[in-house]
Amino acid sequence: MATPKGLFSPDLISPKVASAFPESYQIRPLEQEDYHKGFFECIQVLTSTGDVSEEQFNERYDWMKTKGEGIHYFLVIEHQNQIVGTGTIVVERKFIHNLGNIAHIEEIAIRKEHQGKKLGLKMIQALSSLAKNVGCYKSILGCSEENEPFYVKCGFEKGGRTMKQYY
Ligand code: ACO
């Protein structure tokens, strides 16, 4: 099998979900060139990223593609040569639930000027299809109270509370 251009094979995204994006918007795995397509500007609608050099980005990308293979699945939405949406799943392999796999959904960000066009919803649908295709039985995520209605519209339900500790 040929090595995929991006982080992983695009075949893992449901073709039905991928084709539901508006014509000029493409959902696909993260690629190394995305550093120059505004990947960081996009993800900064979510949180600060620090000043990451291209070399540092490539190092992280290579790690995800090799050592993190089968664990890290990063998706982007490209529109007119620019990254306008991001989202990822991190696959956790468990001992419980018959050695079940679960997907942690992270880094959901849609550029401000593209919000409200159902791109966020479609990003979640793409990540869910990916999670199912790599053998996960559920997806979980943590979010602010403000974003809860968005995730309810995406088909999620509240389950427990998120706790955190910084180091
Ligand atoms: N509150 C209430 N409803 C919302 C909200 C909200 N904050 N955001 C979206 N919705 C609703 C929309 O109105 C729409 O409803 P409808 O189907 O009845 O019309 C539905 O949810 C789908 O909305 P989309 O258009 O797909 O949402 P959008 O593309 O704007 O993406 C997102 C939503 C991802 C929250 C975007 O606003 C964003 O990037 N925000 C900043 C970053 C952020 O907070 N990301 C989430 C972090 S949590 C995580 O990463 C796990």
TrEMBL record:
Similarity-based family: Belongs to the acetyltransferase family. GNA1 subfamily.
Organism: Phialocephala subalpina
Catalyzed reactions: D-glucosamine 6-phosphate + acetyl-CoA = N-acetyl-D-glucosamine 6-phosphate + CoA + H(+)
Pathway membership: Nucleotide-sugar biosynthesis; UDP-N-acetyl-alpha-D-glucosamine biosynthesis; N-acetyl-alpha-D-glucosamine 1-phosphate from alpha-D-glucosamine 6-phosphate (route I): step 1/2
Membrane topology field: Peripheral membrane protein
Coiled coil segments of this chain: none
UniProt entry keywords in alphabetical sequence: Acyltransferase, Endoplasmic reticulum, Membrane, Transferase
GO cellular component, as recorded: endoplasmic reticulum membrane
Domain N-acetyltransferase: residue ranges: 25-167
One biological process term in Gene Ontology: UDP-N-acetylglucosamine biosynthetic process
GO molecular function terms attached to this record: glucosamine 6-phosphate N-acetyltransferase activity
Enzyme Commission number, as recorded: 2.3.1.4
The protein's name: Glucosamine 6-phosphate N-acetyltransferase
Subunit structure: Homodimer.
Cell compartments where the protein resides: Endomembrane system; Endoplasmic reticulum membrane
Main subcellular localisation: membrane
